[in-house]
Amino acid sequence: MDFRPPAPDMTDLRDYAFDWALVDVETSGLVPRRDRVLSVAVVTLGPDGEQTGEFSTLLNPGCDPGPVDVHGLTAERLLGAPTFDQVAGRIGALLQDRVLVAHNAPFDYDFLAHEFARARLYLPVSQRLCTLALNRQVDPPTGDMKLGTLAAHYGVPRTRAHDALDDTRVLAGILRATLREAARLDLPLPLVACPPRQDSQFTPRPPKTPCAYRNPGRMEPGGPLVQGMKVAITGETATSRAELVARAVAAGLNVMTSVSRHTSALVADGAASKSTKARRAAAEGVPVVDEHTFLKLLGDIRAGVLHRVTTAEAAAVSGPSAAGPARTGPAAASQAVAAAPSDPEPTGPAGVPTARGPLSGRRVLVLGGTHPDAVTARTRIVRLGGSAAVNLSRSVTDVVLLPGGENRRRMKRITELGLPVHDESWLTAPTAAPAGAGGAPDPAADRPPVPHVLPRGGVFDLPSPQETPAPQWHVTAAWAPQDGCEIDVVAFVLDEDEQVVFDQDFVFYGAPENPAGTVRLLADGPAEQTIAIDLASLPPASRKIAVAAAIDGDMTFGHVGAVQVTAAPGPDAAPPVRATLDAATTERTLLLAEIYRRGPVWRFRAVGQGYDHGLADLARGYGVDIAD
């Protein structure tokens, strides 16, 4: 019996016509550079949506299969299955010249890329499409974006959950239905370019153990080394660099690969005085010691102060009213965003809007006007209890037109959809449309819970996880698609001094995860990127994760407009909190949000602080010199 759902006619979706390769993998864990693929399925579709091919197989990973209770693949069942390198050629042939499609595509793509790299082959994929990202743009009225939930919503039958082949067939039905919704809303597909990956990017790296001690500051001239000091090394050394680093780390020092104003000392000889690190040390006034003196000081290093997380300490260092010397740079600016001299009170339980007002439960899209006028309108929407949209989606209930908005391309589709359209005076005294009329919310409809809507500077307590292991939190930034510029989302993992513990705690496109894999960048399309954070595995030294966005090019966030930020406990979970953030007109870097410890609780703060300077200056304020 064929369980495949019939393929609907897609000949009218010419703008969405591609050759597709739909993929699902079951794995022994969640970390691609460590865990292995246990089964893989590929279903190919033509531009008309008709299935053109299908392949699936179990795989012998040569390791423990991991959570058998999830995927049902025991070691005995996998015994005798082919290894990945034995089927890589057949999988590659199905992927070649097609767009790879997966539900949470970064996960499947990274696992396949690592497996192909282990087989000493390139993954032959030039573009991918994430159906999670596409459905986040469509925004259907579902409680979450899980595969089973979307299958039920779109009427796609599902027979065997966590079976790679069945999940891929289900995905085919979801893709067809979602493409129709995207066409109805005139949404561009969030395709991600996938240039050939170099094998070195997939070489497993041993995680660097974070320094256990707090940075005591600069080394005093003629004074001792203290555990926790940040030191850098430059130039040739008599002792091998690896041994020198190992001895410094064993003594309790934090060895950095770059120099910043927070570096305690630079180890260098005279010949290295012209190096980049030496020039930066001279500019910042960082003391320089020679190798012989450094080795001698290592033999008499002073005890440092351990990183600890206590309620009182976390409250003192996380809030804007923290005692201590005045700070400059991004840390100080982010703290200045809060409206009160200390942390605002967090919002209530998930599912209840932050503010009650005439726009509670409504999602309003602003079109036209100057950027400052649009910012004013979106701010007013939030104050009235509503949520400001950045794109047209199924959840949009109203549209506000500012001068010139009637000429925007999306107006034709808004008219066809029958959404209520208002002028800016409506925000002075908004009235509700009749229940169910146009895009107006119907109180009787089965709608998912409304996320908390945070204003700029608002704070939300992240709920404690109810399951084991704890889910990763996903902070997702989305914006209207742009022509002529690229936006990069980055993250900094910071200690109690608002500094990275080590250089690799700066996560960006060129280094998409920190060594421990606790903070990762997931690119789900040209108008959406996500920072995934494993809060349960962060070391005590990690007190805050700052998430920012930077524009690569001459444009500013005044051209981009609003950026929507959500936080959700997993890639397909419903976000309990959302914020729509606007910079002014000239900023090229925007600090979006912070997740930070407050005693035993992790909090999410919507920041929205813009800077005229670029990413390099923002990173330097957090202790990273990305030019080094």
Helix content: 10-25%
Low-confidence stretches: 1-6, 197-204, 311-341, 349-354, 434-445
CATH architecture of the largest domain: 2-Layer Sandwich
What is the averaged pLDDT score?
A: 84
CATH class of the largest domain: Alpha Beta
Largest sheet: 6 strands, mixed
Structure notes:
The chain is an alpha/beta fold and 628 residues long. The chain has four domains: 14-202, Nucleotidyltransferase, domain 5 (2-Layer Sandwich), CATH 3.30.420; 230-298, BRCT domain (Rossmann fold, 3-Layer(aba) Sandwich); 363-427, Rossmann fold, CATH 3.40.50.10190; 452-621, Sandwich (Lipoxygenase-1), CATH 2.60.60. The protein is built from 16 helices and 26 strands. Strands 3-2-1-4-5-6 form a six-stranded mixed beta sheet. Strand 13, helix 14 and strand 14 form a beta-alpha-beta unit. Helix 5 runs parallel beside helix 7 and helix 6 (147-154) crosses helix 7. It starts with 19 loop residues before the first strand and ends in a 7-residue tail after the last helix. Residues 1-6, 197-204, 311-341, 349-354 and 434-445 have low confidence and may be disordered.
